[in-house]
Amino acid sequence: MFATTPLRIVAVSAGLSQPSSTRLLADRLAAAARERLAAEQDRNVEVQVVEVRDLAVDIAHHLLSGFPSAALREAIDAVTEADGLIAVTPVFTASYSGLFKSFFDLIDNTALTGKPVVIAATGGTARHSLVLEHALRPLFAYLRAVTVPTSVYAASEDWGSSGDEYTEGLPSRIRRAGGELASAVLGRTVSGASRTPGLDDGEDAVVPFEQQLADLRLD
User: Fold this and answer.
1) Is 15 helix (H, G, I), strand (E, B) or coil?
2) pLDDT value at position 123?
3) What band does 3 get if pLDDT is binned at 50, 70 and 90?
4) Cis before residue 19, ω within 30 degrees of 0?
């Protein structure tokens, strides 16, 4: 039977400036996931962006009183009810921003169980890219979400860079992460191994996740 309920992708952006490179990265990841989902199934795909900066006062009040405002309640419900989640934070003091952490502190630690998540971050230098592995991935492991293999870090110099013979450029990483999220939402192998590789994919883009784990154990 044809499914009429749309798939929902929610992107949480913790950027503080406006315009924000964090919001730009969230938008591009959401577009990549939506494009892949639209190509691989017949349901409509809805994208919603939660701007945490607009909820800063509501978050502080909730932490003090225990009662969320209507806007904050709506944002939390959008995140917990999404089919797929994108979480993007700027890097402050070698970790995620306090506002980003405060928002996810308000989400019950079982509410994201099994939910596919892309983690991403922005910063001024590539030296902070490990924040994805030592801060964000453990956070979402605690929340019992399923983070896709590819995380995306965008330093200032990555915008407008197409990569080189040794590294993938930012657009390629965004497409790969979006594809993995789409595959996870559809219940497929999160590496996207079932799809035909595109021109923008690296040679290892279609390696099954289980094989990636096996390769890691061999190293």
Assistant:
1) coil
2) 93
3) low
4) yes
